[in-house]
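Q: Hi! First time doing this. I have a protein sequence and I read that you can turn it into a structure. Is that right? Here it is:
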Amino acid sequence: MRARLKQEMNIQAAAASANGFNPSALSLRKSVSSPIAASAMERRKVASGVVMALVAGDMWITLLTSISAMKPSTNHGMGGAVRADCLDQAAALLEQSRLDFYELLVREAGKTLPDAISEVREAADFCRYYAVRARADFTNASRLEGPTGELNELSLQGRGVFACISPWNFPLAIFAGQVTAALAAGNCVVAKPAEPTPLIAARFVELLHEAGVAPEALHLIPAPGRLFGEIAFAHAALAGVCMTGSTATALTINRTLAARGGAIVPLIAETGGLNAMLVDSTALPEQVVDDVVSSAFMSAGQRCSALRLLFLQEEIADTVLEMIVGAMDELVIGDPARLETDVGPVITAEARDGLNRHVERMSREARIIKACRLAEPHSRGSFVAPHLIELKHAAELTHEEFGPILHVVRYRSNDIREVLASIRNSHYGLTLGIQTRLESFWRQVFEGTSVGNTYVNRNMIGAVVGVQPFGGTGLSGTGPKAGGPHYMTRFANERTLTVNTTATGGNAALLNLGV
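A: Yes, that's right. Below is the predicted 3D structure, encoded as structure tokens:
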């Protein structure tokens, strides 16, 4: 798998170089093990801080003015087809500007080049997919069958002003998905990017305005989360909230919205999960190892969908673990701007320290099977060594550790019901992996769990827009699934129109009977 990825990356890099993009120029330090170089990290902090300060200094006025000035009728009045044209144009502009976004994603978010390329592609997919849905669902009313002499129609209409709150781990793709869905449904949007990554969001908002989205329909508010919530969630014009982030944040927002006066507004939340993969004794070990390593360690484990808990049937556990350790030895940890890098830094020093505290606790309470080695240059960045940790019981992992740390539990085939119960009892339900050559096994696991996205005999990351709609259940989110056919309806009000057509002089429809 890794060889195939490198081959694909070399092709992408050659094409980018032909267009004047030099990946090595992103690295401010030439050491192979360089982090987002210390100077680059400082530049990111300074640049981000300027954007944040512009808002923080006059936060209340800025946000209140933005929301109050929005006129939802402006965006809704454009019609679904016109809004769809704007999104198609945005996708085209995004692809034309992809090199700029690659650089931003590497510098500001610490993305590796493969991750940056994939994220730009996903953002463009969101634009085009929601354009398709806008034309299909928001252009004309649907005729409903009813009694003769009546006209019955169902139409979808934007709710008003939506607050969209996006995370730092997908600062372009998720930000784009939330904002474009809300706009395509006919809403105005106040968009709050994650605090570590406002520059990526600012560039995409600029692109949307260039594509034809009215300035009064979309405002970017890069602000501290608490201040943003205090103002936006209390504003009478607020018609809904879309957020991706931690479960704790989602619960806080839910309580805040429930306590406010006025109309009841929807919350669309996608949160994290204790994502598991079950491997039985029939699984092909080489495929298991490829899928485990990519699911657990790519993007430095900073994906909502990343594998956190691996269940291995005891008959194959030793063999598979030995192979995983060997694969981990091949991981290149370093500067995300370099093509050979597999694992870059985690987002902040605070995140690094929290993950290291978890590893320290696990060293006392569990068994560290493998810890990748970090060299001296890694100390100048927020790097966390990929870890493989064996637990005695799944219950020892009580909450999500958002980084390159994989936990493993052995199980006996007779205990599969208890394994499924442990997954259900976590109350998370985002992603689930199954590795087996038995259809009866994967069907048993699928039917015995309630997880949003289940993957059989493949990795658990990289959901494709329109093909694998993404979202979880329970503590992992509210739904509907992003990138799916039902997502945009949550941003809309449903309206029915019933007309007694006989009141204007008879029932012309009866003339067609028998024709």
